[in-house]
Specification:
single chain, mainly alpha, Farnesyl Diphosphate Synthase, 2 strands, globular
Length: 286
Amino acid sequence: MFGYVLPDKPNLYMRDYALFRAYYCGLCHAMKKESGQIARLSVNYDAAFISLFFHDVRGEKPTVVQKRCILNPKKRAVIAQTKTAEEVARLNLVLLGMKLQDDRADGDNKPFRRLAFSRQIKKARKRSPEFASFADECAARQREEERAGGSLDGAAEPFADMMRKTFAFLAGEKNATDIERIGYLLGKFVYFMDALDDYDRDLKKGRFNAFYRTFREKSAEDLLKNKGEDVRFLMESIMKGIENAYKGVELSENEGVVTNVLWYGLRWRFDTVCKKENGKCSKIRL
């Protein structure tokens, strides 16, 4: 995914911070197990959150161990190892493949990046054909939507629906309407955040941007200055919908981290993107 679903660190308890790091590191090691060292470069906080969320939904208890970190060999990271992490690792690679294909279609060609991850993406699609099917359907619907020139909300529908199906699949027999609703709205949140974050770059390169198609502002600064209330109302509606759906989901061990992400992290991340400095989004580090 894209790096928009993560905790609000200042409001995170130390226990929950350590828990999130363990799942993040566990996902990194799962990427290595699934597709080799190069695949670990694609690990992101969005995928770590999905892993943490569905471990609790499924009631899966991770095996907690210490392993060396590839970025800091002297450090022995605490990691959470599970089957769910391996599934999410494959999902992450399928989503990466989808993004690389989208970049290529928009003329933002990255041949070396595609080449570096091509084998890993193919392997993930083969091992998780459900994720591949969701992604392919989303890509086809997205191209159709962009050509049709429909509404702002309609532009986000293909990705939102893909995430709804993905959450339903990962939940399995524990699936519920509220879980699907969270997936659907998180898909919308990520789609609109990416469009807002990339507004100036999309205009410069002549790529499709849902906000530009709707508001026709010449820059992200003008968009937030002239249409900021409309943008904030849209995003607040999505975030409030996520909070309401989350009230119907029962979690246990990971509830603190999930609550932090969905109640505080999303709003904090939205604010960081709106307050860009020198045309670049604030860098995020845990």
